[in-house]
Amino acid sequence: MDEEYDVIVLGTGLKECILSGLLSVDGLKVLHMDRNDYYGGDSTSLNLNQLWKKFRGEEKPPAHLGASRDYNVDMVPKFMMANGTLVRTLIHTDVTKYLSFKAVDGSFVFSKGKIHKVPATDMEALKSPLMGIFEKRRARNFFIYVQDYNDADPRTHQGLDLTRMTTRELIAKHGLSDDTIDFIGHALALHRDDRYLSEPAIDTVKRMKLYSESLARFQGGSPYIYPLYGLGELPQAFARLSAVYGGTYMLNKPECKVGLTASMLIIYAIMCEFFYPILYCRLNLIWRGKCVVLHQKVKLPSARRLSVILLTWPTRYISLFSIDVIL
Q: Model's pTM, two decimal places?
């Protein structure tokens, strides 16, 4: 093992591995270490044995649960927009050769006690019970405006300045109902609360265009894709990129911490996840939890991979959230 490095990275979370990969490609000498025996940090995907060890200590998982390698459990479950920034980053850095993806079968909203599919085609939109027939006509005109909108072409703006006009003002021009506004804002634009209504409309329009572009990219039933073996594959892909360009990786180093001396100032940078002690300072641990229970009478669709967005509660009072479900 070499004793001098340009960059030391502690923790193998996604952002750390992206930086490690890019710096290695740029010719810097990188040492990358992790206290865990797996990649991904808090956003990893664990097999059954790793999952049991994390939450049950040294206890072994029951035999009836099957082979450990058949499990890839995300610690932070998320789907990816098929035309989003992360996907474009994966393509630009050419790490997609290390990854396989699945298109998510459908996106759904939970509204008024029932689960409805977010329309993915014109025919689905016509049949959807989420809007009445007259509301669908008004919504269609709004969707056409959003689809045709081009920042660089004022002819598509219809005389509107979306950087000054709020989303509420833009939607009011199309006479849409409150239910439709909730649907557009949270199921399509994917806003987490209602603050977007008082903010410039350009952000909501760009979010809706991203949804539409992602939906069209793979011609699937939703705009989402998912790594075949879990989100933990993403940091691993960038770790492989770093290793190809000379990066050094060391896992299972629980005593990792950083203490600087004058002789170590030859290091250009030290990057780490929040839980690694820097200069021997201790960090407080913050616990956050969220539990969602769907009533047994709520019937889930038959799709094996889906996203459910909850529209049940008034979003002006709470932050709206979605559930990614993989069956």
A: 0.76
10 Å CB burial of residue 200 (0-12, 13-18, 19+) is: middle
Identify the CATH class of 7-101+227-272: alpha beta
Q: Of the spans 97-106, 196-205, 272-281, which averages the highest pLDDT?
A: 196-205
User: What's the CA dihedral at 273, 278, 280, 285 to 10 degrees?
Assistant: -30
Domain spans of the chain, in order of start: 7-101+227-272, 102-225+289-326
State both tokens at 33. 């270490």
Residue of 275, 280, 282 lying closest to 258 (CA atoms): 280
The class that CATH gives domain 102-225+289-326 is: mainly alpha
Rounded to an integer, what distance in angstroms lies between the CA atom of residue 200 and that of residue 181? 15
* pLDDT value of position 327: 40
Dig out the tokens for 306 from the structure: 């889906």
CB-CB contact of 61 with 68 (8 Å): yes
Q: What is the rounded average pLDDT of the residues 119-144?
A: 84
Are 229 and 70 spatial neighbours (Cβ–Cβ below 8 Å)?
A: no
Q: What is the mean pLDDT of the segment spanning 218-222? A: 82
- For 11-56, write each residue's pLDDT tens digit: 899 989 999 999 999 999 999 988 888 899 888 999 999 999 989 8
Cβ atoms of residues 310 and 110 within 8 Å: yes
Q: Left (φ > 0), alpha (ψ -120 to 50) or beta: where does 170 sit?
A: alpha
